[in-house]
Amino acid sequence: MIFRFGKWCLAFAAIFAMAIAPAEAASRIKDIASLQSGRENQLIGYGLVVGLQGTGDSLRSSPFTEQSLRAMLQNLGISTQGGDSRSKNIAAVLVTANLPPFASPGSRIDVTVGSLGDSTSLRGGTLVMTSLSGADGQIYAVAQGSVVVTGFSAQGAAASVTQGVTTSGRVPNGAIIERELPAKFKDAFNLVLQLRNPDFSTAVGMAAAINRYGKTQFGGSIAEARDSQSVVIDKPKMADLSRLMADIENLVIETDVPARVVINERTGTIVIGQDVRIAQVAVSYGTLTVQVTETPTVVQPAPFSDGVTAVEPNTTIDASQDGGTVAILNGSNLRSLVAGLNSIGVKPDGIISILQGIKTAGALQAELVLQ
């Protein structure tokens, strides 16, 4: 058996990703911010999936499925009095969807379905007409259609195989929007842009770029940075909001983000931002390996003796230490930081522990995010 100290053994292959990008990147406003009044709204509904090949809910274990089946048949004018249903071709599901901004009645959206009972697979099923409601309880869409399941499962008498998830799926373009949101874009007096990555420098720069556009087109400033996430744009007189938004979202500005190091300990992924700096620090990295080998020896008794065959233990212990190099790191920029870590032969799993140690020592001038 082998014991290893000072080095992590990860279950997956480690990937070392470095974000070597300029400190400030030019981006369009539409790519870094979204319109507050143009956000999505979540919809939810309860429905039934039929047409399953014996992989549906067992009605005794999922009584709500049987109740829903009886209610649906009664609405269709079919009497369900007398006798218990033992159908295994139906499953109760929860249906979810996102209502896009400015959606109009008649347009279609995708929906996602997930099993609520003990169904083993939704493959080949069909979602029966299901109403989708918003947080206000109003019905905004109706969903129906064939369920697409990416996973599959197969089993025999002594073995089974499953790939992916078979108890959830999607219905592409399966919902038709029946009601539009009450808010009207044209009735707004101002526009509020929300940064996807809040930052005061980016918000102020966005407001400045919009004001330069406003002075050229309308003769005055029209934008103000409210905080690190929101920029408010006042509607100029006689301006069309749709055209105004189309012009503003194509303005190019310089974005800025705080220095950040993102570490995923499960996969060994490391992402280091360009603005990451470290103070001068000494780092030692090495690996101690202890190998224990058992080679028992069989001992035979002397001829014509009353002895018995015995096993004599024989243990060999070998200890070795690799690395142990000490390096002085002065990360004035990302290139020098990575070069310093590579100079002592550190692999991604070792870099994770080194960065955590540097952060604990107070020498890492960046936010350390662990996932």
Automatic annotation (TrEMBL):
Domain of life, per lineage: Bacteria
Coiled-coil segments: none
Signal keyword on record: yes
One cellular component (GO) term of this entry: outer membrane-bounded periplasmic space
Keyword Transport: no
GO biological process, one term: bacterial-type flagellum-dependent cell motility
GO molecular function terms noted in the UniProt entry: structural molecule activity
InterPro entries per UniProt: Flag_FlgI (IPR001782)
Intracellular or extracellular location(s): Bacterial flagellum basal body
Keyword list, A-Z: Bacterial flagellum, Cell projection, Cilium, Flagellum, Periplasm, Signal
Main location: other
Subunit details: The basal body constitutes a major portion of the flagellar organelle and consists of four rings (L,P,S, and M) mounted on a central rod.
Function: Assembles around the rod to form the L-ring and probably protects the motor/basal body from shearing forces during rotation.
UniProt family annotation: Belongs to the FlgI family.
Name this polypeptide is given: Flagellar P-ring protein
UniProt source species: Pararhizobium polonicum
Gene field: flgI
